[in-house]
Structures are given as C-alpha cells and as structure tokens.
Amino acid sequence: MLSRTKEWWLDNVYRDSSAAVFYDNEHVPKGYILYSVKNNILNVQEMAALDYEARVNLWNFICQHDSMVDSVNIVLPVNDPFPYYLKQPNVKTEVFPYFMARVVDAEKCLESFAFLQTSENVFLHVSDEYADWNNGSYLISEAGVTAYKEKQGSHCAHPPKRGITMNINALSAILTGFQRPKELFQLGHLTGSEKEIDELEKKIPVQTTFIYDFF
At the N or C end, where does the chain have fewer CB atoms within 10 A? Predict the structure, then answer.
C-alpha cells in the first residue's frame, strides 16, 4: 500500500464513497471499507483488514445490506481467502491485471529491497534495452548489493559462466512479487543453473502484488 497523505485521502480516495471502520474492544481501528450503493449494487472500492476479526466483521457489515442490494462487487488481491469462508464458494471471480510496473533504477531498487538472508551469494545479469544505465551485473550477498555496470558502448564477447541472466521485465516481476524466480525460469525468462535459481528463490520473500491507488 502507498503511504497516503491527508490530502491524497481526501482528494483522491474518499471522493463519493462511504466509509466503514471496524474497531476492536479497545477501540483500536483494525479494518475499513470504502463503498457505494447504486442500482441495487454494492461496490466496494477498498477493503483492508489487519486480522481475522476485522475481516469477518467487515464482511458481516456488507451482509447487512442484503435487503438493499442484489449483488456485491469488490476488488481483492488474487490470493484473498474469502472463498474459503463460504460453505458453497460458487461466486464469480475474475482475474485481471490492474496496472504495469517497471524498475527504473535497478541498482537503487536492489539496494533497498528486503532480501531474505541466506548463506549463498547470487549474481544477476540484467539487460535493459531502453535504460542502459541498468545494464550490468549485481552481486547479492549478506553484505548487500554490489553493482558491476557495463561500460558505455561495450559488451561481453562471451556470456558469463555463472549467475542468472534476465531482462528488466523479469526483474520487475520478481521484485514486485508478481512472479517467482522458479516460475520465470520454467517459462524461459531466466537462464542459469537450477542451483542458482533455487538460491534466488530463497532470497525473495513471498508477498502479494496489489495496490488500490492509481498515479
């Protein structure tokens, strides 16, 4: 999620939506939804819950509108557990891409990424046909990330003997959590040894790629 300023909330998020917030017994907010009702349809623009109790109570709030609406539309992450709450999960679900992502500065992005610590190092060889400052090799180790940039106008006569080769698209998909390294390796978007792919897999935390905001 983005860290929203008060102005962003008021000018770009709330708009014409209504808000419902769940508070626990200590009156601490633990979840919210932004929604609107029109033409007998309840549209939930945003839903966020910090724990199970908040999630269940927000869904109960939605259920209380059963006399007002015929259906509910809601945008959720692809791995949202809602269908598992239903005894008969016969609901229509659609999976669609929400926006595109691109790493603009590979070195800065890798340096700030929260890699999981493992005992082995991994070399990434990245190519970018539109942003040549990203071209180069990046060593990921316990000490951090070390960049070895290509000199302008030069290129390797022989491919590197070790390391994982990928383009900026694959790197973007991995760092945003949209695809796992092993999946991209099986699709032919990464090249390298299976041992190196396994090591990169261990270094990438499992996370959900999802964001409500548009730019």
Answer: C
Tens digit of pLDDT per residue, the chain (215 long)? Answer: 678 999 999 888 888 889 999 999 999 999 999 999 999 999 999 999 999 999 999 999 999 999 999 999 998 888 888 888 888 878 888 888 777 889 999 999 999 999 999 999 999 999 999 999 999 999 999 999 999 987 665 555 555 678 999 999 999 999 999 899 999 999 999 999 999 999 999 999 998 888 888 76
Q: Considering the domain delimited by 6-85, tell me its CATH architecture.
A: 3-Layer(aba) Sandwich (3.40)
* CA-atom Rg of the chain in angstroms: 22
Residues listed for the chain: 215
Q: Which CATH architecture has domain 106-203?
A: 2-Layer Sandwich (3.30)
Segments making up each domain of the chain, as ranges: 6-85, 106-203
Going across the sheet that includes 71-74, the strands are 18-23, 29-38, 41-49, 71-74
Could you give the C-alpha distances from 88 to 77, 84, 91, 116, 191, in angstroms and in order? 20, 9, 8, 38, 43
